[in-house]
Amino acid sequence: MPGSDSPGGTAAHPAAPVRVFLLDDHEVVRRGLRDLLEAESDLEVVGEAGDAEEALTRVPAVRPHVAVLDVRLGGAEQHSDHAGIEVCRELRAMMPELVCLILTSFDDDEALMDAVMAGAAGYVLKQIKGADLISAIRTVAAGTSLLDPGASARVMARVRAREHRTAPPELARLTPREREVLALIGEGLTNRQIGERLFLAEKTVKNRISTILAKLGVGRRVQAAVIAERLRERGG
Fold first, then answer.
1. What pTM was estimated for this model as a whole?
2. Residue 114: how many CB atoms within 10 A of its CB?
3. In terms of C-beta distances under 8 Å and separation of at least 24 residues, what long-range contacts does 177-180 make, across chains too?
4. Who contacts 203 (Cβ-Cβ below 8 Å, separation ≥6)?
5. pLDDT (tens digit per residue) in 169-208
6. Is the distance from CB of 22 to CB of 44 less than 8 angstroms?
7. What is the distance between the alpha carbons of residues 170 and 214, in angstroms, rounded to a whole number?
8. N or C: lower Cβ tally within 10 Å for the chain?
């Protein structure tokens, strides 16, 4: 009889599906992911994008629960090898409730550390089996992190070990304004948030960060953040 499957005689309503957004610069990959996920009754792909700018526009409009983000995006303006992580940072600033799952072809310690600092809930390789990816999405959607705290701590230790134990001499080349920007990078702020804090245009912030990285002789935002944290610990 209808409704006899619940104690009160009323049919239980199934939970709403997990809303998923896909970011990958390869259309074939996006199609494959969409087909894989939409075969599951509890997952719904609500949008997709092929580049960072498109994702930053579309994600707030469709309000997904989980964003699956490729790390490397061709054609990104800067640092395309970690552009997906910067998208994670920007989206989390706009939508703190959004859960980001980083998907990458490369097992990269620096990318993992960047993902941790950007607020990602998980970091998985594209070689993952389809069933395991589905499980990972369900796991992070339920509020459980896939980032092993021990692994994250070991990665941070390796990044620190690659830096000099004292502040690099290149730090003296930074202007007072650049030091301010560096300190805010260390706090994990996005380019947009740094701009709002210092009353600068976001494009100006991007240019200043590029200059800071060049002056410090580092190639990654996470390396600059480690330097900023060390200075803060020293009271510098």
1. 0.65
2. 28
3. 177/208, 178/208, 178/211, 178/212, 178/215
4. none
5. 667 788 888 889 998 988 888 888 999 999 888 888 988 9
6. no
7. 9
8. N
